[in-house]
Amino acid sequence: MRAAFLIAGLLAAAVGCGSEPDAEPDPGPAPGDAATSELEITFWPQGRSSGNAQTWTLTCNPAAGTHPSPEDACAQLDALDQPFAPPAPDEICTEQYGGPEEALVEGTYRGEPVSFELSRTNGCEIGRWEQHSFLLPDSGRA
Length: 142
What we know:
alpha+beta
């Protein structure tokens, strides 16, 4: 009886030897990896309703595009933790108006889709605008 268990154990071990584990799918770049980013930035100095838009492109890894300072803009994007995360739904914002300017950033960032709107309609939006000012033209505001 012992011999039968021993033989069964050896056979089970032999069957398992040489078999390769199933290959796991490539998850792609991890968040924060240097995947290519391709963004289109549209800026309306007097708001979208004015129709007077300025548009440029920004590519990172490697830095390029029609943005006036692609290397600087890519470096500043990389320094931010989740630069295009939506605001928290329960965020409390001060009621203040910072101006009519609006911007839209669309494309991909580190391989993830981006559609990010900026405005100056309240304290939270002004803060986001200032955090992303390196993507936008200098409007002369302090």
